[in-house]
Amino acid sequence: MSQRVALPDLDTLTPEALKALIVAQHEQILSRDEQLLRKEEQLSSLEEEIERLRLLIAKLRRMQFGRKSEKLDWQIEQLELKLDELEASRAQQAAASPVSLAASDVNRARKRARQPLPAHLPRETRKILPKQEACPDCSGALKFLGEDVSETLEYVPEHFKVIRQVRVKLACARCDKIVQAEAPSRPIERGIAGPGLLAHVLVSKYADHLPLYRQAEIYAREGVELDRSTMAEWVGGCSRLLEPLVEALRRHVMSAEKLHTDDTPVPVLAPGNGKTKTGRLWTYVRDDRPWGDKTPPAVWFAYTPDRKGEHPQAHLREFTGTLQADAYAGYGQVYEGGRVKEAACMSHVRRPFYDLYEAHKSAVAKEALERIAALYTIEEEIRGRSAEERRAVRNERSKPLLESLKQWMEETLGKLSRKSDTTRAIRYALDRWEALTRYCDDGRLEIDNNAAERALRAVVLGRKNYLFAGSDAGGERAAALYALIGTAKLNGLNPEAYLREVLSRIADHPINRIEELLPWNLAAELAGNSRRAA
Hints:
- By secondary structure, the protein is of the alpha/beta class.
- It has helices at 15-64, 70-96, 100-110, 195-206, 212-221, 228-254, 310-315, 332-335, 346-360, 363-382, 387-413, 421-431, 433-436, 450-455, 457-466, 472-490, 495-505, 519-533, and strands spanning 123-128, 142-156, 159-172, 178-180, 258-269, 276-286, 298-304, 321-324, 340-343.
- Strands 7-6-5-8-9 form a 5-stranded mixed sheet. Strands 1, 2, 3 and 4 form a 4-stranded mixed sheet that branches.
- It starts with 14 loop residues before the first helix and ends with a helix.
């Protein structure tokens, strides 16, 4: 993906320019040597940590015999998860490193020899004939000479199968020239996994919340022994492969004029001490369908090791428009200067009143809920209409209700204790009233930020299952896969079918046309494939 820089015409350079060129080349070589050394040190550190975890897991498993301990089971599960993430990180770093081939050779030497794919699985043979119909050298007739056979393990919904790729060799009867088709590229170089199996592993991990060691147990029941570390390498390799596509998705999201954003905590295992720290997953949603716009909806996720305000500032550095978000103070600097306008969320206003009513059957909370419900009724009626229609209806019907709500809140506030929960709920609304009512003057905006909260549901479910991410690198991988899976769902696609199609193409796809692989650009083709399969 990087571009080579051509050398200047050396015959036209002065002695001083030649010296400067040599010095610059020398500095580049030294810099590259330093980068290679750092990469090698990182990979070596990962190897040592992986080996330490394997030994610790083996020790804990030996301790399991006899009387089982729930705490011990929990420790093993969490160490298994960390091992998944570290092995995926190793594969991702190796794929991105100039020393990836050497590192792969080292890893391969440490493993046992690859076992033949299970004989009981059904085989599908695909013959790959050369494109030439005659000898390319002398135009003589071609005769059968032999064939090269390779196998990949593939997964189609509900079962495994093995695909035998048979590359036929032909020889010229006149001059003995040998002709054979090139081997088809694979998503993971020299890997046994087909794009369908890779997509299934990724969706099982990030959409169905099954860690790799649990997937390995499931596949073993089907008679397919897949080493967890092998699947971790697949996850890391796929993450590396999909990076340009995720970047294209980010550009699409950030080119919107209105975004929804939210964040959620993600416990992450801190390196070295076995304890957890709190990282964050941020979501940015572009979805203008409620006002009839045809631009494809999309969601982009970002992982950060903490919740500092500098992170949303960095994420939104290219964005200009309106940001619908909660009241997190970190967005304050984003709004400074007016490049980004704030739109608040009515759901966040409603939530404390709902809690108060559920807990105490408060009359004040009940009236607040009824007034807010009237606003939502209007929104339901105008969903899907044009931005101009929505603005006109809101100005005619919603604005008077909002003005009445504000007046009622101000009058009620004077009758309440300053420290009561109801007072805090009212002040929350009044303190951000301008941002809360901005949606009335812009038909593209929503009354709330629920689009972002919906996008985070998958993360919340995964957090309940995983308990924590194995590393910061694991959090970044999760953000990338959540983005692709979430966007596929927003566009009505089966995320596994989408990723299968992408992984079958992306290795050979031109980087300057990567947008062609975004979900909405494959939707029609995937729908056609689905109809043919049915």
